[in-house]
Amino acid sequence: PPLKVRATHPDCSIILYFQEQKAECLEIIRSESQMPATPGPPGQQGCLTEWDGVSCWSAVPVGQSRAVTCPDILHIFKKSKALIQRNCTESGWSFPSPPYYNACELEAIGNNNDTEAKASYFVTMKVLYTCGYSTSLAALFLAIGIFSCFRKLHCTRNSIHIHFFTSFILRGAAVFIKDAILFSDESIDHCTMSTVNCKVAITFFQYSVLANFYWLLVEGMYLQTLLLLTFTSDKRYIWWYILIGWGVPMLTVCVWVVTRLQYDNHGCWDDYTSLYWWVIKAPILLAIFVNFLIFLNVTRMLAQKIRSPDISKNYKQQYMRLTKSTLLLIPLFGVHYVVFALFPEHIGVDARLYFELVLGSYQGFLVALLYCFLNGEVQAEIKRNWGKWQSSMESNVFNLATQDFTA
Fold first, then answer.
1. N or C, which end of the chain has less CB nearby within 10 Å?
2. 147, 190, 188, 194: which is closest to 166 by C-alpha?
3. Membrane-crossing residues (predicted)?
4. Sign of the C-alpha dihedral computed for residues 28, 31, 35 and 37 taken in this order
5. Residues 87 and 129 occupy one common structural domain
């Protein structure tokens, strides 16, 4: 049976299709060369099987002809039922009649300007998301440093924030690692690339993306827990949160790796057209769906608590402060993913790239901004320590001046 064409892009589908057809034709030619030659006058043995770069022409005797249909590839040929014929003459195979580009109606191929424009577009896209991930990584490292340095900021809520920040750092690092391995050399054929390094890079990237979505889910779960169990210690749940945020993605990726190794170990594992991609995609969609339910439930509980006359103004402000960041992030992170998940991978590629690479690269910066830099508790602690440092410096300067004067 013919091999199933799998690829990351329609262009790769074309390349893999012809590679598979060529391999099958060469196998036929090899088997024919091992068979004993049939006796006959010189030049009358017939035309041997031949691969012309598009189709495989089976062997026929001299004076007979062979007809094949156009390759069934809509990206190149408009027609797939047209017939192309070749005759076997004493001089060998005749030229295809009619030619492929007439019989199959070759699709118009972009000129050099289109190719240069597309190359410029991808270069611009790479510069934009590189700047975005670099900005996000700097902001996230600074935010983790702030939460770690100030003792008063050590709590379960900020510990969860640190894990969430770490998942963004891993995601940004995974993008840079993937680019370095897959796209560092322009001479590499990405359609057939199948090395251990590229598979490890893709696996690490998938794990970081999964961890990113599941730590966003943990943020939503923690927020809901705070509103439901106001007087319960939240430290008892931290290990469950860690298990969900890091453990579930690890288990999912392990299942995906074993599945690819067993049933679909081809290429660089970055083909999103494969059915096994749902091993990664389904848990992400599940996390987004659960987060959306949490979003609705938290909104309902928050409205009830704000309307309640038994809750003081300070508590109402506290609830608002706890929820505004997470309620903003949940729809922001999930909506575009759900929208694109409903369409095939080859539809809306430009829009998908823009949302996932360019806008997605700044999500880490937005998270650090909402959870750390705009956090009133963090700002107050920084101001307090800044004031203490200034007082200490002024005191040291006064002591030095006094020593000089007395001396």
1. N
2. 147
3. 127-150, 162-183, 213-231, 238-258, 278-298, 326-347, 353-374
4. positive
5. no
What one-character DSSP code corresponds to residue 153? G
Please tell me whether residues 92 and 155 are part of one structural domain.
Answer: no
Beta strands in 218-361 (DSSP E): none
Count of domains in the chain? 2
Residue 321 lies in a domain: yes
Torsional sign, CA 234, 235, 237, 240: positive
**What's residue 2's pLDDT?**
38
Is 116 within a domain? Answer: no
Give the residue ranges of the chain where pLDDT is below 50. 1-9, 40-43, 109-111, 231, 405
pLDDT for position 197: 87
Give the model's pLDDT for residue 335: 62
How far is residue 45 CA from its own chain's centroid?
A: 55
pLDDT of residue 265: 84
End-to-end CA distance of the chain: 98
3-state DSSP call for residue 114? helix
User: Using an 8 Å Cβ cutoff, are 211 and 167 in contact?
Assistant: yes
| Domain extent at residue 142 | 125-378
